[in-house]
Specification:
This protein has nine helices and six strands; from the N terminus they run βααβααβααβαββαα. With about 180 residues, it is of the alpha/beta class. It has a single domain, classed as Rossmann fold (3-Layer(aba) Sandwich), CATH 3.40.50. A six-stranded mixed sheet has the order 3-2-1-4-5-6. The radius of gyration is 16 Å and the shape is globular. About 20% of the residues have low confidence.
Protein backbone atom coordinates (compact mmCIF):
# COMPACT_ATOMS: atom_id res chain seq x y z
CA UNK A 1 0.00 0.00 0.00
CA UNK A 2 1.32 3.45 -0.94
CA UNK A 3 1.63 5.78 2.01
CA UNK A 4 2.56 9.41 2.64
CA UNK A 5 4.66 10.00 5.75
CA UNK A 6 3.99 12.88 8.08
CA UNK A 7 7.26 14.58 9.03
CA UNK A 8 7.48 13.02 12.48
CA UNK A 9 6.83 9.53 11.10
CA UNK A 10 9.64 9.96 8.56
CA UNK A 11 12.05 11.17 11.25
CA UNK A 12 11.04 8.47 13.76
CA UNK A 13 11.31 5.75 11.11
CA UNK A 14 14.76 6.71 9.87
CA UNK A 15 16.25 7.56 13.27
CA UNK A 16 14.70 4.50 14.96
CA UNK A 17 12.88 6.50 17.62
CA UNK A 18 10.95 4.61 20.33
CA UNK A 19 7.75 6.59 19.62
CA UNK A 20 7.25 4.32 16.58
CA UNK A 21 6.12 0.77 17.24
CA UNK A 22 8.01 -2.21 15.85
CA UNK A 23 4.91 -3.08 13.84
CA UNK A 24 4.85 0.36 12.22
CA UNK A 25 8.60 0.30 11.55
CA UNK A 26 8.41 -3.15 9.93
CA UNK A 27 5.44 -2.12 7.77
CA UNK A 28 7.25 1.03 6.62
CA UNK A 29 10.42 -0.95 5.90
CA UNK A 30 8.38 -3.25 3.67
CA UNK A 31 6.69 -0.33 1.93
CA UNK A 32 10.11 1.21 1.29
CA UNK A 33 11.33 -2.04 -0.26
CA UNK A 34 8.36 -1.87 -2.65
CA UNK A 35 9.02 1.86 -3.30
CA UNK A 36 5.62 2.77 -1.88
CA UNK A 37 6.70 5.50 0.55
CA UNK A 38 6.17 9.17 -0.22
CA UNK A 39 7.06 12.39 1.57
CA UNK A 40 5.60 15.87 1.06
CA UNK A 41 8.25 18.45 0.16
CA UNK A 42 7.28 20.57 3.17
CA UNK A 43 8.72 17.83 5.41
CA UNK A 44 12.22 18.62 4.14
CA UNK A 45 11.81 22.17 5.42
CA UNK A 46 10.27 20.97 8.70
CA UNK A 47 13.27 18.69 9.28
CA UNK A 48 15.63 21.59 8.62
CA UNK A 49 13.75 23.77 11.09
CA UNK A 50 13.80 21.06 13.76
CA UNK A 51 17.51 20.54 13.23
CA UNK A 52 18.30 24.27 13.35
CA UNK A 53 16.49 24.44 16.71
CA UNK A 54 18.38 21.34 17.96
CA UNK A 55 15.10 19.45 18.37
CA UNK A 56 16.36 16.40 16.46
CA UNK A 57 19.65 14.57 16.74
CA UNK A 58 21.03 13.01 13.56
CA UNK A 59 23.89 10.56 13.04
CA UNK A 60 25.37 12.65 10.18
CA UNK A 61 25.75 16.32 9.30
CA UNK A 62 22.31 17.61 8.35
CA UNK A 63 22.94 18.06 4.61
CA UNK A 64 24.35 14.54 4.27
CA UNK A 65 21.53 13.03 6.32
CA UNK A 66 18.86 14.91 4.35
CA UNK A 67 20.24 13.78 0.99
CA UNK A 68 20.29 10.15 2.14
CA UNK A 69 16.92 10.32 3.93
CA UNK A 70 15.17 11.70 0.84
CA UNK A 71 17.00 9.63 -1.78
CA UNK A 72 14.88 7.94 -4.48
CA UNK A 73 15.75 4.47 -3.15
CA UNK A 74 14.32 5.41 0.25
CA UNK A 75 11.15 7.27 -0.75
CA UNK A 76 9.71 9.67 -3.30
CA UNK A 77 9.47 13.36 -2.40
CA UNK A 78 6.23 14.86 -3.72
CA UNK A 79 6.39 18.53 -4.73
CA UNK A 80 4.09 21.35 -3.78
CA UNK A 81 2.24 21.58 -7.09
CA UNK A 82 -1.04 22.82 -8.54
CA UNK A 83 -3.03 19.76 -7.43
CA UNK A 84 -1.76 20.09 -3.84
CA UNK A 85 -2.71 23.78 -3.78
CA UNK A 86 -6.19 22.94 -5.09
CA UNK A 87 -6.56 20.24 -2.41
CA UNK A 88 -5.33 22.76 0.18
CA UNK A 89 -8.12 25.13 -0.82
CA UNK A 90 -10.67 22.36 -0.27
CA UNK A 91 -9.69 21.67 3.34
CA UNK A 92 -12.26 22.76 5.91
CA UNK A 93 -11.51 26.23 7.23
CA UNK A 94 -11.49 24.97 10.83
CA UNK A 95 -9.01 22.21 10.01
CA UNK A 96 -5.63 22.37 11.75
CA UNK A 97 -4.06 25.83 11.86
CA UNK A 98 -0.49 24.64 11.25
CA UNK A 99 0.34 25.48 7.60
CA UNK A 100 2.79 22.56 7.30
CA UNK A 101 0.18 20.07 8.53
CA UNK A 102 -2.37 21.54 6.13
CA UNK A 103 0.10 21.03 3.25
CA UNK A 104 0.83 17.47 4.35
CA UNK A 105 -2.88 16.57 4.41
CA UNK A 106 -3.46 18.36 1.09
CA UNK A 107 -0.59 16.38 -0.45
CA UNK A 108 -2.11 13.11 0.74
CA UNK A 109 -5.50 14.08 -0.65
CA UNK A 110 -4.14 15.35 -3.99
CA UNK A 111 -2.19 12.13 -4.57
CA UNK A 112 -4.87 9.84 -3.08
CA UNK A 113 -2.44 8.44 -0.52
CA UNK A 114 -3.08 7.21 3.00
CA UNK A 115 -1.28 9.32 5.59
CA UNK A 116 0.91 7.81 8.31
CA UNK A 117 0.68 10.16 11.27
CA UNK A 118 0.41 10.18 15.04
CA UNK A 119 -0.89 13.78 15.03
CA UNK A 120 -4.16 13.57 16.96
CA UNK A 121 -5.61 16.71 15.40
CA UNK A 122 -5.14 15.24 11.92
CA UNK A 123 -6.37 11.80 13.00
CA UNK A 124 -9.54 13.21 14.58
CA UNK A 125 -10.26 15.55 11.66
CA UNK A 126 -11.27 12.75 9.28
CA UNK A 127 -9.93 14.96 6.48
CA UNK A 128 -7.66 12.24 5.08
CA UNK A 129 -7.36 8.46 4.82
CA UNK A 130 -5.15 7.18 7.62
CA UNK A 131 -2.54 4.44 7.49
CA UNK A 132 -2.03 2.38 10.61
CA UNK A 133 0.70 -0.27 10.41
CA UNK A 134 -0.56 -1.75 7.20
CA UNK A 135 -4.25 -1.10 7.86
CA UNK A 136 -6.22 1.70 6.30
CA UNK A 137 -8.90 3.72 8.05
CA UNK A 138 -11.65 4.76 5.66
CA UNK A 139 -13.05 8.25 5.77
CA UNK A 140 -15.52 10.11 3.63
CA UNK A 141 -14.24 11.11 0.17
CA UNK A 142 -12.58 14.48 -0.15
CA UNK A 143 -15.00 17.30 -0.98
CA UNK A 144 -15.40 17.63 -4.71
CA UNK A 145 -14.43 14.06 -5.57
CA UNK A 146 -17.99 12.81 -5.99
CA UNK A 147 -18.98 15.92 -7.94
CA UNK A 148 -15.97 15.51 -10.23
CA UNK A 149 -16.80 11.84 -10.86
CA UNK A 150 -20.42 12.75 -11.64
CA UNK A 151 -19.36 15.53 -14.00
CA UNK A 152 -16.56 13.74 -15.86
CA UNK A 153 -17.33 10.07 -15.31
CA UNK A 154 -15.50 7.46 -13.24
CA UNK A 155 -11.76 7.37 -13.67
CA UNK A 156 -11.53 10.86 -15.18
CA UNK A 157 -8.26 12.53 -14.33
CA UNK A 158 -7.85 16.15 -15.40
CA UNK A 159 -4.07 15.76 -15.39
CA UNK A 160 -3.94 12.22 -16.81
CA UNK A 161 -1.39 13.04 -19.55
CA UNK A 162 0.95 14.70 -17.07
CA UNK A 163 0.63 11.76 -14.69
CA UNK A 164 1.45 9.24 -17.40
CA UNK A 165 4.88 10.84 -17.68
CA UNK A 166 5.65 10.23 -14.00
CA UNK A 167 7.96 7.48 -12.90
CA UNK A 168 6.27 4.15 -12.37
CA UNK A 169 6.72 4.45 -8.59
CA UNK A 170 4.92 7.81 -8.35
CA UNK A 171 1.40 7.71 -6.92
CA UNK A 172 -1.48 7.68 -9.35
CA UNK A 173 -4.71 9.52 -8.82
CA UNK A 174 -7.98 7.66 -9.09
CA UNK A 175 -11.61 8.57 -8.73
CA UNK A 176 -11.94 6.23 -5.74
CA UNK A 177 -11.69 7.78 -2.31
Amino acid sequence: MKVLLDTHMWLWWLTRQPQMSDRERTALDRAAERQELFLPAISLWEAQMLHSKSRIQLPLPFADWLRRASAPGVLTVLPLDVEVVIALGRLPGAFHGDPADRLIVATARAHRLALATHDERIRKSRAVRLWTAGRLQRVAPAPGVQEQAARYGPGHLPARRALSRRRASAPRRSSRA
